[in-house]
Design brief:
The protein has a single domain (11-151), classed as Rossmann fold, CATH 3.40.50. With 184 residues, the protein is of the alpha/beta class. It has a six-stranded mixed sheet with strand order 4-3-2-5-6-7, with helices on both faces. Helices cover 20% and strands 30% of the residues. It contains three helices and eight strands; from the N terminus they run E-H-E-H-E-E-E-H-E-E-E. The chain is globular, with a radius of gyration of 17 Å. The structure holds inosinic acid (IMP) and magnesium ion. Inosinic acid is lined by residues 43, 68, 75, 98-106, 151-153, 157-158.
């Protein structure tokens, strides 16, 4: 893994602190309300798990799987819902939890889709934001870190579906992908 990790962008410790801060802010903002935390799988899984531990108003979980087509390093421009919500969100306070916002296509589409179902409110919380990549306007309520327009991996974010388990955020060196070497 050493050569594959070109640069550690955000350490495990930094993520932990930021997640706690965000959780505390969310707890304040939603005081007296319940929250439906909506995790966008698969990338949002690590962040939502950690974030939810720091929220002290009543929380429910739900999950959606949304995909832009293909498996390339850049989002491809189309959104497909692979797994929808399990429940009605009517009159609920929905907080979408995402790993990263790049072009904004995914969340722009998703917010419109969810608004049609009559929630009391919809807000967005993302661990990472790449403001330079934005092509679709969206309002993001909670942002962990704004990062440069680089492809990053770890803490839920994948490189060809692998390495979501890595506990920090890093810039990969694709030529040094351990999967491409002979078995050890
Ligand atoms: P958007 O629709 O362009 O905003 O892209 C959002 C989705 O693209 C995220 O949920 C990720 O799945 C994926 N994505 C965007 N940038 C990265 C990255 O740097 N690493 C891994 N996945 C990314
Ligand atoms: Mg992805």
């Amino acid at each position: 893994m050493e050569k594959f990790v070109k640069e550690v962008l955000i350490s495990e410790e930094e993520i932990r602190e930021k997640t706690k801060e965000l959780g505390q802010q969310i707890s304040k903002d939603y005081e007296g309300k319940d929250i439906l935390l909506l995790c966008i799988l698969k990338g949002g899984i690590m962040f939502m798990t950690e974030l939810s531990k720091h929220i002290d108003v009543p929380v429910e979980f739900d999950f959606m799987v949304v995909s832009s087509y293909g498996n390339e390093l850049k989002s491809s421009g189309e959104v497909k819902i692979i797994k929808d919500l399990d429940q009605s969100i009517k009159d609920k306070h929905v907080l979408i939890v995402e790993d990263i916002i790049d072009t904004g296509l995914t969340l722009n589409y998703l917010c419109d889709y969810l608004k049609g179902r009559g929630p009391a409110s919809i807000k967005i919380c993302t661990l990472l934001d790449k403001p330079e990549g934005r092509e679709n306007p969206i309002e993001v309520d909670y942002i962990g870190y704004s990062i440069p327009n680089k492809f990053v991996v770890g803490y839920g974010l994948d490189f060809e579906e692998y390495y979501r388990n890595v506990p920090y955020i890093f810039v990969p060196n694709p030529e040094e992908d351990p999967r491409k070497r002979g078995s050890k």
